[in-house]
Design goal:
It is a single chain. By secondary structure, the protein is of the alpha+beta class. The chain has two domains: 1-34; 35-217, YmcC-like fold (Beta Barrel). The protein has helices spanning 3-28, 105-112, and strands spanning 48-57, 75-81, 84-93, 96-102, 136-138, 144-156, 159-170, 180-185, 190-197, 207-217. The protein has a ten-stranded antiparallel β-sheet with strand order 4-3-2-1-10-9-8-7-6-5, with helices on one face. It is globular and about 50 Å long.
Length: 222
């Protein structure tokens, strides 16, 4: 076997290894890692998402804590009816679970990533689609901004999702905005997990408020 034949064999081996590496990479990297962006979702009547909301105090509160609509129940149902999202608090009693229709737009904001016009800072959530890692935009009503950091896997009671990690942070020189981290999953068309840190940058943590997806139902063909 002469030098040229040896060279061809080595080149063929290198090419084969390269194809094997590429094939393995495609097998193990999540599908959404190839996606350049997450487009704005569409919804149909009957679509719903059930979330668990937990308020955990890391430091004893000073005085009585007001009971807001988003902490009055441990779980909520957001359902599309008549083209609009509605919120139901899940009440549990002797007769089982009973959904109660309530007016609580902040729950919608923390599930679908969009807010009604009357919802103001700091409850307002303003996702701007399409979402892609590296994109950012200013918060509408406060010295803060949103930033899409990366695709990550997030595990919830409903299962594991490929989600975009989105953070809301203060602008430089304006530390008085509570930081929030969201995980938006295109396959769920919703925020599957979020965590609000109840302390301003540089302060000792006081509490954290989390939303976690536990169940969902929608038409997968749309």
């Amino acid at each position: 076997m002469d030098f040229r034949e040896n060279s061809r064999v080595r080149d063929l081996a290198k090419t084969t290894r390269a194809f094997v590496i590429i094939a393995l990479w495609y097998c193990f990297v999540p599908f959404h890692a190839f996606a350049q962006q997450a487009d704005a979702p569409g919804y149909n009547d009957g679509d719903w998402w059930r979330v668990r909301v937990e308020l955990r105090w890391l430091k004893p509160p000073l005085g009585d804590v007001p009971r807001n609509c988003d902490t009055a129940y441990s779980e909520y149902l957001v359902k599309i009816e008549g083209g609009e999202p509605r919120v139901f608090g899940i009440k549990t009693g002797l007769g089982g679970e009973k959904p109660e229709l309530i007016d609580c737009p902040v729950v919608i904001a923390n599930v679908l990533g969009k807010s009604k016009e009357q919802l103001k800072f700091p409850q307002r959530v303003d996702f701007r689609f399409p979402l892609r890692p590296g994109s950012s935009w200013p918060y509408r009503e406060a010295p803060a901004m949103y930033r899409v950091e990366s695709w990550e896997k997030i595990r919830t009671p409903k299962g594991e999702f490929d989600a975009l990690k989105i953070v809301r942070i203060s602008l430089p020189g304006w530390p008085r905005v509570l930081p929030v981290t969201y995980y938006y999953a295109p396959s769920a068309r919703a925020i599957v997990y979020s965590r609000l840190e109840g302390s301003y940058p540089g302060e000792e943590p006081r509490y954290e408020l989390t939303y976690t997806l536990v169940r969902l139902l929608f038409d997968l063909m749309t």
